[in-house]
Fold:
Amino acid sequence: MHKILCVDNNEENLTELKLLFKNKIEEFSLIFAKNGNEAINILLKESIDMILLDAMIDDTDGYETAKLIKSNSVINHIPMIFLIENKTHNTIENAFKYGVDYLLKPFDKDVLFTRIKSQFEVLELHNKLEDQISFNQSVLNAQKNMILIHDDNGLINANQSFYSFFCVHNTEEFISTYGSLVSQFMEYENYFSLSDLNNTVPWLSELSSKENTPYSILLLNHNTFQPETFVIDVNPIGNLDKFVITLTNITSIITQSKRYEMKATYDVLTNIYNRNKFNDCIDEQYKLFARYGGELSFAIFDIDFFKQVNDVHGHVVGDETLITFAQTIENNIRNTDVFARWGGEEFTLLLPCTKLEDATFVTNNLRKIIEKLNFKTIGQKTCSIGLTQFKKGDTVDSVLLRADEALYEAKETGRNKVCVR
Structure:
């Protein structure tokens, strides 16, 4: 049953309405008010489905009452039909400005119920649309990815993930706080930002035109104040000049990838290059040497009597010794040199653009630095070094073998020295 509020100070009009609805008591329930204040009080207390409002109440403008109703967010959704004496341009304009329809007095029964039925059908469609919009928003809000509707003028709507990321409650607050989405794209190498744009092409059109080109952006998370990486996907909505933007957070993937890269590249203990990375570097340098020639030297380091450190002091002290040794060498070589842990207490050093004479000086200097170094717990320690230079006709294996033979010679002839092959 629908509840209809009839607002009119004319008893004859109210009586006429009662008679018209006499045979509709199973469909409609009428509630009466004689002025605007009484009407608003009823609307705030009762669940009303429609309002029949006289355009003149107590010699006042009934449109003022309608204006008050429309300004109240609790009751402004209720459809309103005005009851008017005279059909003029002004009355019709106000009827549609504050209500949804009008009805001329005296009432025509068929017209009245047709209008009421029509308005309830419109209301039902409106409620279904509101439910669908609410459902669609719920679906969007359930997505972990940030999803938003945007046009060339700015943000139109977004899901909860988007608002939460930027610490705002709605689109209006985002716009007032940040202005635009694209202004939040952080400038960083290999990430899309405003600086990548041609000024004549809107950024949405630019990104949507390259369907098979993935773009990454960097955004500051306003909850953690940490930059996070997103893949941005922009798709046009038909011919509406609007776009659906999906922002997929790949920060954890990037972080995990860097962890894997770290494990594949660096020695876990000493934090210098590991053997796999060194093999890549020496292969690359060898290709350059084989093609262009030049000077390229290679050395193997071995900490003298390292086994005694582990046997006497334990592996914790042994690890400390390896870390100190590695960092000391790393801090005393060029940025272009490649230093790595080869395995156990053996380390390798690749010296690009360095002839053997200069490499001998460098490695001897490094040996002296180690010799003078005071290691924690064990005190003084020395190292032996095997050094060689890439020659025409060499392979990587032949160079490694020659350096290893030089190292063996250094260890067999007294240690704490550099031997050259």
Summary: The longest helix spans residues 109-141. The chain is about 45% helix and 25% strand. The radius of gyration is 41 Å.
